[in-house]
């Protein structure tokens, strides 16, 4: 595997960063998880828009233009001869001293890895996930805004620890006010009273690329969609529930906190949206080998 590291492609065993890199020392950095399907990089423009917005939000200068970053992603896939892959694009504040002052980091570290990722077994896509709401709340937007896809994923990791210790594979985090926010690496949708609901960005969630794609697809299918806060009660009593994310794609939820959702199996709305999503992934995004 060849990895892009600060302007060069290096072998996996040579892909190393300094122990003084602030991405490692302080989680001071940002990242994107992107997918390539059938020789195209799905929603690359949208991912790069979010990456540069995250950078601006933490006052991090990436150091290369968005267009050049797009080429970094495409070239990483070409170098590894990949048409279907998961891409991890990481930008950290860079090497500094042991203090946390970002001003001591002169140049951002840029890394691009193209590989495979599998979050959930195929059976879970067919039967649905069991998920659990956890005590750990989603970060308060006034502290570390979840809109920033930062390297600070300890909030998510702690939620993951909590659900796996309870024997459940995915966690649902609530907002500080107790409304449903999102999963550890995915957004959430419920279908209830003939309306598709998903939490609003103001709830303090990551603006998922897959979330936004599903909202657009639902609209084209004349499925009423509302971005609005909802509670665990709404989730428990929904007809359908599913999660969305680059790694997860669309995955149905069959049980939340011991409550069976709907008929306890993937619903018609989920299946309709997944079918349209799969079609879109085959034709969207810049070609890798054009
Ligand atoms: C907290 C959170 N919420 C929603 C999403 C979905 O966003 P996208 O639809 O843009 O992917 C994420 C995405 N998080 C994400 C994406 C890709 C891989 C991994 C991983 O766990 O390796 C995590 C996430 O981390």
Model description:
The protein is of the alpha+beta class. It has two domains: 114 residues, 2-Layer Sandwich (D-amino Acid Aminotransferase, Chain A, domain 1); 160 residues, D-amino Acid Aminotransferase, Chain A, domain 2, CATH 3.20.10. Strand 1 and strand 2 form a beta hairpin. The protein is globular. The mean pLDDT is 97.
Rg calc: 19 Å
Distance between the termini: 22 Å
| Uncertain stretches of 5 or more adjacent residues | none
Task: Name the CATH architecture of the largest domain.
Answer: Alpha-Beta Barrel
Principal-axis shape: globular
Topology readout:
Blueprint lengths: L1 E4 L2 E4 L10 H5 L2 E9 L2 E2 L2 H14 L8 H14 L5 E8 L16 E7 L6 H6 L1 E5 L20 H12 L4 E5 L5 E4 L3 E6 L2 E4 L10 H12 L4 E3 L4 H5 L3 E6 L3 E8 L2 E2 L7 H14 L9
Parallel strand pairs: 7-8, 7-14, 11-12
Antiparallel strand pairs: 1-2, 1-6, 3-4, 3-5, 5-6, 8-9, 10-11, 10-13, 13-14, 14-15
The structure holds 3-[O-phosphonopyridoxyl]--amino-benzoic acid.
3-[O-phosphonopyridoxyl]--amino-benzoic acid binds next to helix 6 and strand 13.
GO cellular component, one term: cytosol
Family: Belongs to the class-IV pyridoxal-phosphate-dependent aminotransferase family.
Enzyme class: transferase
